[in-house]
Design a protein that fits this description.
394 residues; alpha/beta; seven-stranded mixed β-sheet; five-stranded mixed β-sheet; 14 helices; 39% helix; globular
């Protein structure tokens, strides 16, 4: 429930940021559309989401932070680049974990916001504000798009990044009573089985997920090498914007039968719903949403499951009715999105049969202009070129 709402927020931020001017002047819409369509379709996405905005990868040396000693310490560095999630209050109990050094980087935020966050986190954390914060965002490759502006790095005693995560919220830090952080504070490593996030670009080899997916029939499926695949994280095909994107992608599916088209549907597990309840109460966020959290736990779980299942059933029914020939998988708690650093929806990614990245995670080019949605007409042609190359090599 919570993560679905966050994903929709990011979708709205991206879609409507591009359309503000058009909404003010309907007569300007044709000129705006023409200008937008004159640019390469994936240029904007590759500017917002690339190796220089998705954060330094695991194994990189952590750049120096003035006044902070990284060597010989187990350090958690949390970046907020203009955007701050409500769960920032979790950083106070994080700062109190013995053996853990917490650094919070606050860039492009008003002074009053920096002061309020500093007070909320407490004195045990090191807070870095601008101009140093902006420099650190650049050196750690933290982008300024809402989907990538909140990023967390685990730095071991040798000054190397051993874990990192892009996430629209910080709730995951508190899962299992802060298990990952407690393990890191004690050992300088993350627990076995932790999903490590990868920054992928053209020509990289994407790691195949070791975890299973649920099928919409209730079975279990794994993703392994063997054939080219187009992955899609999207919205209902019966929706206006979702339908336009689906029209493009399903046309391509019919043209390239050797390519497996995989539709990933997010599913929030009962465990994740429980964790949300726990950390909301831990830091007092329950007061912001009393309709959800100022009720008994069992009542909350029943209500959350009901909403989650109703949303899921509606989407699965819609996808099943339209997406014949697609492989539809439930990505429980967005584990694949985490593994491959898929930061916003609707997005696509194309891999060849061995897992080589032919098109990295790419926000699908669409715009809300003149009161209606448009998809970039050049997108389908560029995707054709990629898929043709992928199938020619088979």
């Amino acid at each position: 429930m919570r993560r679905i709402m966050t994903g929709l927020l990011l979708f709205v931020l991206l879609g409507f940021a591009l359309s503000a001017v058009a909404d003010e002047c309907e007569y300007c819409a044709p000129a705006i559309i023409e200008e937008w369509e004159s640019h390469p379709p994936f240029e904007r996405a590759h500017t917002d989401f690339c190796p220089y905005t998705l954060g330094l990868p695991i194994g990189a040396e952590a750049p120096a932070i003035p006044g902070v000693e990284l060597i010989g310490r187990h350090t958690l560095i949390v970046f907020f680049n203009e955007f701050v999630c409500p769960e920032v209050g979790l950083l106070r109990p994080v700062s109190q974990i013995e053996g853990l050094q917490l650094v919070v980087v606050l860039s492009r935020l008003p002074k009053s916001t920096v002061t309020a966050i500093t007070d909320q986190i407490g004195e045990k954390a090191t807070v870095v504000a601008d101009p140093t914060a902006g420099i650190l965002c650049s050196s750690y490759y933290v982008g300024d798009h809402p989907g990538v502006a909140q990023m967390t790095f685990f730095v071991d005693e040798d000054g190397a990044i051993i874990h990192r995560r892009i996430s629209p919220d910080l709730g995951w830090l508190a899962y299992d009573d802060f298990l990952v952080l407690l393990h890191f504070a004690e050992t300088g490593t993350v627990p076995e089985g932790t999903i490590l996030q990868h920054v992928l670009w053209y020509g990289d080899t994407a790691p195949w997920p070791e975890f299973p997916f649920e099928t919409i029939e209730g079975g279990e499926a794994f993703l392994t090498p063997g054939r080219p695949r187009l992955f899609y994280w999207g919205f209902a095909p019966s929706s206006e914007m979702g339908g336009l994107i689906f029209r493009d992608l399903d046309t391509l599916r019919s043209e390239y039968p050797d390519v497996e088209f995989v539709w990933l549907i997010h599913y929030t597990s009962d465990d994740a719903l429980t964790e949300i309840w726990t950390y909301y109460h831990l830091i007092g966020l329950d007061a912001l949403h009393p309709e959800w959290f100022d009720i008994p736990f069992d009542e909350y779980m029943s209500k959350a499951r009901e909403e989650r299942d109703a949303d899921l059933d509606a989407l699965v029914t819609d996808v099943s009715a339209h997406a014949e020939g697609w492989t539809v998988l439930l990505d429980v708690d967005s584990r694949l999105s985490g593994l491959w650093s898929v930061a916003v929806w609707p997005s696509i990614m194309i891999l060849d049969s061995d897992g080589t990245v032919l098109l990295p995670f790419t926000n699908y080019p669409r715009n809300y202009i003149g009161g209606e949605w448009h998809v970039h007409p050049g997108a389908i042609e560029e995707l054709r070129e990629i898929l043709s190359a992928a199938t020619e090599d088979e």
